[in-house]
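User: Need the bound-state model for 1,3-dihydroxyacetonephosphate:
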Amino acid sequence: RLSSAKELLLNAEQGGYAIGAFNVYNLEGVEAVVAAAEEEQSPAILQIHPGALKQGGIPLVSCCIAAAEQASVPITVHFDHGTSKEDMVEALELGLDSLMVDGSHLSFKDNVSYTKFISVLAHAKGMLVEAELGRLSGTEDDLTVEDYEARLTDVNQAQEFIDETGIDSLAVCIGNVHGKYPASGPNLRLDLLKDLDALCSNRGVFLVLHGASGLCKELIKECIERGVRKFNVNTEVRKAYMDSLGSPKKDLVHVMASAKEAMKAVIAEKMRLFGSAGKA
Ligand code: G3H
Ligand code: 13P
Ligand code: ZN
Ligand code: NA
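Assistant: Bound-state model below.
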């Protein structure tokens, strides 16, 4: 059933687990998330990146909403990484319940005013607002942020950011990256996450971690223990889709079904790791 992001995140907060937010691009992706959620009896977030919206348009949004409405478990639809006012103005009109304002490419001052501007408009529509402070490195939908540009979230700035913008969820940078982690593995600053959690808990703000593809079971557990309530997952699901195309298929329907199954397996595994399985 179509549910609110707030309901899902509050339940996760009370239950001490996290919700998986999976980027979707087409019907197979949407079906994979919903099928995994139903199989695992898990709540889930379908999220649409501006790059996906550019390809799929309103039909993609309608597909997500219809799939959520028909699901037997709680599903919400979220707009991911709006980096410009144009993106956000479009996102505000999609009929969704939550969105992410991404001003992480801006200076702190400009990020505050951009996020605050959108936050006021989104709250007027009753939407839940996520924003990012610090900056993730890595590649997402052809947009690459070099390592040297990556900045960790500063706790004092985070406090000012939350108080000035009135956001509901904070996406933090603690060494998490979009896409692949270096061969040496992820280097997450769990000490910093603990401090950010203390701040967010105090302010009633949900902690969000992007770049969850590539994080091992143990790290995910450590992050949940330090208050992360939403993990964004994209790369591993896309890879499962692409890899499934490698084996010979008889026809289009077979291609679609095997892509869906491949994505579903990755998504279901994440739901178990995030602790949302069995929580629907
Ligand atoms: O109501 C929201 C919670 O206090 C969020 O805290 O950072 O531990 O998820 P959290
Ligand atoms: P990954 O591609 O590393 O899973 O990151 C996903 C993400 O943060 C989407 O916003
Ligand atoms: Zn992200
Ligand atoms: Na990642």
